[in-house]
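TODO from last week: model Zn-dependent oxidoreductase.
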Amino acid sequence: MRAAYASSSKPDAPLSALTVDDRLDPDPPDGWVTVDVRASSLNHHEIWSLRGVGLPADRLPMILGCDAAGVDPEGNEVVLHSVVPDPKDPRGYSLLSERHPGTLAERVAVPAGNLVAKPAGMSFLDAACVPTAWLTAYHMLVTRGRVADADAVLVQGAGGGVSTAAVVLAVALGKRVYATSREQWKRDRVAELGATAVAPGARLPERVNMVVESVGAPTFEHSMKSARPGARIVVCGATGGHLATVDLRRVFGMQLDILGSSMGTAEELAELLTLMAERDLRPVIDSTYGFSAVADAFARLHSGEVFGKVAIDHLH
Ligand SMILES: NC(=O)c1ccc[n+]([C@@H]2O[C@H](COP(=O)([O-])OP(=O)(O)OC[C@H]3O[C@@H](n4cnc5c(N)ncnc54)[C@H](OP(=O)(O)O)[C@@H]3O)[C@@H](O)[C@H]2O)c1
């Protein structure tokens, strides 16, 4: 079957570690099922993997991809939950493409418990954008950040998949949402989603109860300064650098919670898909590529010029 995989690790030139070629079909162990992939989407995770972050050389070659929607052996339309229980991993789990082959292929095997029903009215492409970025945003907002108790939310780095999902979800949940971006065109786009767009580091009209932080070092000080007493700063990533400076006086003085967040559960993914179907929420899709142009899709993601998700149509 055709697949997109990491054939080497290139810390400084990740795209050169990507190979698109034939790989063997999945050979699922007991309790796993093989899904025909109809659509997938890219995440920054793939770029980290090609750099060798979280994907050591002894696991190569590795089919990339965490996200997919497709059809299971019974003909059900399903969305894949990417989190696979894994006692060997210090986190207790791994994501598809870390220890088990990922979704950027014609077929992928997952534990049967990782299949979630795709809402009937949702396209395969939209559904394939949800399992990582949207689930992460949902878990950050609802579970870790207790957004139900918040009225104002700050989302840093407005262009990414997680950030656009967080903006759409927080707006849908009735929150006042502020979003930063370094680029004016992204600030214009995020304003169209219902957020108040601000330049990085700018003073907000009010302090917020919750921050969705995925940029890291470049924005963390602003996240801390924008937080009101008792606020939650929820961190899922560090695209711009993971060594941030924290003024501890602000942490204890303002009684801030700095919370880590990783993915979400299969139950949360089902809840999120139901919420999206009920409220007619659609993922923000930057661009869609046929699988035959998957390398171009990676180049687009790596360019940083994206707003929302880069989706892959596996039927083309
Ligand atoms: N923990 C988890 O479960 C989980 C799940 C999903 C993603 N993640 C992580 O979350 C992060 C976001 O992923 P993503 O795929 O949504 O998007 P992404 O491609 O990493 O981009 C997110 C945003 O980061 C900003 N950014 C990038 N480099 C920057 C820099 N040097 N300085 C300031 N801002 C910068 C950009 O904002 P502007 O251009 O708008 O300024 C961009 O729109 C990644 O690090 C990813 O690995 C973690």
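Done. Residues 207 and 226 are 5 Å apart (CA to CA).
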